[in-house]
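Holo prediction — zinc ion.
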Amino acid sequence: MKCLSPSILAADFSKLGEQIAQLDEAGAQYVHIDVADGMFAPSITFGLPVIASIREHTERIFDVHLMIEEPARYIQDFVEAGADIITVHAESTKHLDRTIEEIKKNGVLAGVALNPATPLSALDCVLDKVDMVLIMTVNPGFGGQELIPYTLDKVRDLQQILERRGLKTDIEVDGGINLFNVEEVLAAGANIIVAGSAVFSGDVRDNTRQFLSLINGQGARY
Ligand code: DX5
Ligand code: ZN
């Protein structure tokens, strides 16, 4: 399934509940939640209480992207706060296998993210056990950056590897995606599109609908 996962990092936090309701109303299937600890990624975003409080505003899938050191320490807490998918960075832990097992043990879907400079070979041993691979199309930490073109080659290569191995793993992409490049990103093989600033600058509902119509292959509405 192809879907949109708007990143609330770009939302107006003073109206977070309201803006999430707008995403929901416009049909976005996921809500992308970027948690950064100032160690793994250079920014500090938000954490568990924020996730728990927005959980009451929508039933959509909470797609939690952990940009934190040794995330296994907090998996259960994120599940209790309302996560449906938890994605950890391969670079953030000495024990990737154990961390994936910890996510699955807690009954949610497991994703692994790769920074732009991390090769796909980092996934070789765990590919069979993850539900989603997140190919970062920018360096993690901040919204509003430009997509790094070579990361789309990684998306194409990953799609081929999955095909060869007979896996139906989701491919998510995150960073610098907008209404002008989303079709190229989809054509590379991604099926879950994260977008922050391109959704939240201007009219949230309208931007969401425009993304969805491109993702569903119905052409631009603008
Ligand atoms: C970057 C985050 C992204 C970011 C995307 O560390 O993981 O999810 O918020 O924002 P845009 O779409 O503005 O690049
Ligand atoms: Zn993210």
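READOUT: The chain has a mean pLDDT of 97.
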